[in-house]
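Consider one such protein record:
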Amino acid sequence: MEPYNQNGLPRFAELLISRLCKAELQEEILGNLEEAYHAHGRKIRLWRECLLYLRPSCLKSINSSIHHPMFIFNPLLTIRNLRKQGMNTIINIAGFTIGLLCVFFLYFYVSSELKYDTFHKDYHEIYRVLRTAEMNGSPFKIGVTSGPYARALETDFEGKIYTCRASLETSLVKYKDKQFFEEHILFADPDFFTFFSFPLASGDPKDVLSQANNVVFSKALAKKYFGDEDPIGQIIETEGEQFIVTGIMDEIPAKSHLEFNMVLSFAFLDKYEWMSNWWNNGLTTYAKFSSPQDRAYVESQLQWFMEKYMGDDFDQTKSRMGLTLEPLSETYFASDVRYDLARHGDLKSVYILAMVAVAILFIACFNYVNMSVALSFKRAKEVGVRKIMGGRKGRLILQFLGESLMVILTAIVLAGLLSQLFLPIFNGLFGLEVTYDWSDPNILLFMCALVGLVVLSSGVYPAVLLSSFKPLRVMKGEMVKGTKGVLIRKGLVVAQFVIAIFLMAVTFLVTIQISYMKNKELGFNQESIVTIDLNNGDIREQTDTFKERLLSHPAIESVAAVSGEPGGFHDGATIQFKGIDEQLKIRTLFTDYDFLETLNIQLLAGRNFDRSFGADMNGSVLLNRKALEELGMSAEEALGKTVNMPLWDEYDRKIVGIVEDYHFQSLKNPIEPLCIILGGRARKIVVAMQAGNLNQGIEHMNNTWEELIDGFPMHYTFLDESLSRLYENEQKQHRVFTSFSIISLFLATLGIFGLVTYSAQRRQKEFGIRKVLGASVSEILSLISKEFTFLIIVAFMVSIPLAWLFVTNWLQAFSYRIVLQDYWYVFAASGIVSLVVALLTIGFRSLSVALSNPSESIRCE
C-alpha cells in the first residue's frame, strides 16, 4: 500500500480519521487536513492537526464503534466503573501495589546477584583454578594457590591457556600528610586489565601495571587522596615503597567477586622468595582458554600437572591434591570453597527470595480475583443490559480485562514511586545494598511480562465469568442464586493461606535455629573477648612486648597470640605419628602458652603448655577429642607420642595434652580434628577483658598500640560479633521471611475480606429470615465463619508438610541444628495465628450484616 493517497495525505492519518471520527464529520476533517498540508507543506503540522481532531466531540460514540475491533475497551467507561466500586477498587490497587513493591525490590536484588562478573566481555571463557583435597574422607575445594602455578600452566600448555594472578591485601597508604588504612588493595599481574574487563577512565590497559612501582586507583579513592588534583603521576607510599599512579579505574558496570579500590603490580612481589614456593598458597589464579577444546585438553591433564611438580611431596605426606577449573560465572556463588579470598553470595537465598516474590504477587492476584467475583453479581444486570443492547461476549471480556489492566497499571505506577521511598528502609531492614536501575533495558521486558502475567492470571477468570451471564436469567434475578465458580474462589483462598501459613511456620523455625546457634555452648568463652589484627611487621616483631603491656592494666585478664581465632583462619596439614604407620589430616592452630586460659577451653587429659618446660616451644602439641576419635586412640595412648608435620618443618613434637572439642568453625561445619601447636607466626592477638571494664580495656589497648606503632591504626573486633557474622546470610533470610510472612498474611486477609463480602451480600435475605425466626447475632456470625474456618484448616493441612520439607532441607546446611519433632507446636501456632486473624477479619466484615434490620434485607431484591 502506498504511504500517501492521491491528495498527498498519509494513508495512516486518513485511516485514523475514518475509523475514529464521526461519519458526518469525516469529509470536513479530511478537507481541512488537505488544506493545512498544502498551505504549510509540513508533515509535523499535519500530524498535529490530525491528533487535535481526535477529541471527544469528534470521536465516534461507544455504540457506533461496537463492531470495530480497533476499540478494545472504553477507557472512560472503565474509569467510571472503577470509581463506582469505591472501596473495592482501593483495596485491589492497594493489594497490587504492596505486592509489586515487594516484587520490584526483590527483582532488582535477584537481578544484581545474578549479574556478578558478567560485565567481562569474555567471562564465559574465564575460569578460576582451584585445588582439590579431602579431610579424612570428606572432599573439599581450596580457593588459593601459590605463585608458581600460573607460569607453570602457561609453560606446560603453551598457546592453550593464559593466566592471571590476583591477591587481596590490606595496608597503610600514605600521600603527603594524608594516610589511611586500606582494606581493599589488590595485587595483580601486569595483564590484569586486558585479561579482565575492568574499565579504565585513565591509562592504557596494556601497560598500566607494567612496572613494579605502578598503582591504579578507583575514582573514589583518587578523590579521597588527591582531591581535585590530577592523580596521574602522583606518588604514594605503602609497604615501605613508593608507587606512581598510572591509571584510574572507571565505574564498574556490575558487581564483581573481587572487591578492591587499588591495584598494585605483582612484579613488586616477585622479589620475595615465598612467591616461588609451591606450598605458600595465598593468591588466586585465573585461566582463560582459546577454545573449548583447549580447555577440555588442559582439564584432562591437570592431575598429571600436579604429579609433575608435587608428586614427591604427595608421596611424603601420603596424600594427594588435584586441580579443577571453576567458571567465573559460578565463582560468586561458590561459597563452599575453603580459604577463599573472594566475595560470595548464597544462590539458595536468591532462589528463596525469587520464590517469595512470586508467592506475594500471586496472593495479590488471588485477592483481585476474589474481590472481582465477590462483586460480580452486582454487575450482572449491567452485563445483561449490554448483551440485550447487542454487546458481544468477546467485547465484554475485553472491557473487563481493560479494567484489570487499568488497576494493574495504576498499581505499577504507585509501586514504582513508593519503591524509591522505601528502598532505604528495605536495605536497612534486610541488610542489603540494593539499587534501582530503571534504565536497565531488561526492566522494560520484565514490566511487560509482569503486566501480561498479572492481567492473565487475575483478570481472565472474572472477565469470562461476567461475560458468560445469560441476559434473561440475569433480568429475572436468577444469577444471584447461582453457585458457579464457588470451588475456584474457595481454592484461591486456600492457596493464599497455604502461602501465608507456610511463610509463618518457616519464619518461626528459622528464628529458633538462629537462636539455637547464638545460644549453643561453643566450648570456649566468647564474651568480652577482643581480637586484634597483627597486620604490621613492626607489631609482629614486638608481640611479646605488646602482650606484656596489655596485661599491665587490671581491665585485661589474659592475652594470647594465635594464628587464627575461633571462626577465623585454621590451616590444614597432615601429622605423622613417629614409629607407627598412622597419619591424620588435621586442622592446625599456632599459639602461645596462654591460649587455653584466655578462651577458657577445657583440658581433658595431660597438661597445658608450660613455660617451665623449655622443650615445649616448637616441641609440643595439644590434640582435641575429635582427633583421638579419628585415630581410634584413647587419651592415655596418645599422650607422650611424637608427631611431625611433613613439608611444614623438621620438628618432632610431643603430644602433651588433650582438650575438649570446641567449635572453631561455623556450626554449619562439623568439628574437625585439631592440632594446637606452641610457636609459629601469630596473625591475631586475643584479649580477654573484664566485662564491666570494656571501655577502659579498649582505651588501654589503643594507647599501648600507639606507643609501639606510630601512625598505623589498630584494627580490632569483638569475638561474639565476628561469630555472629558467620550466619549473616541466615539472618538476612530470617528478616526476609519475617517481613514477607506478615505481608502475605495481610494480603490473605484481604482475600478473606473479598469472599466474606461476596457470601454475606448473597445470603443477606437468608440471614434476614433467620433473624426473624429468632437467630442471634452470634449464630449468624457462626454461619458465615464456619465455611472459612474449614478453608483455613484445609490450607493448614496442605502448608505444614510443605513447610516441614522446606525447613528440613534448609537445616541440612547446618551440622548442628534443631530437631523439628521437638517443635511441632510451631506448626500448630502458625495455623492458629492465621485462623485468629482470619476470624477477626470475618467478624469485622460480617458484623454489619448480622446487626442489620431483617425487614430491609427481606424487602430488597
Q: What stands out?
A: The longest strand covers residues 161-175.
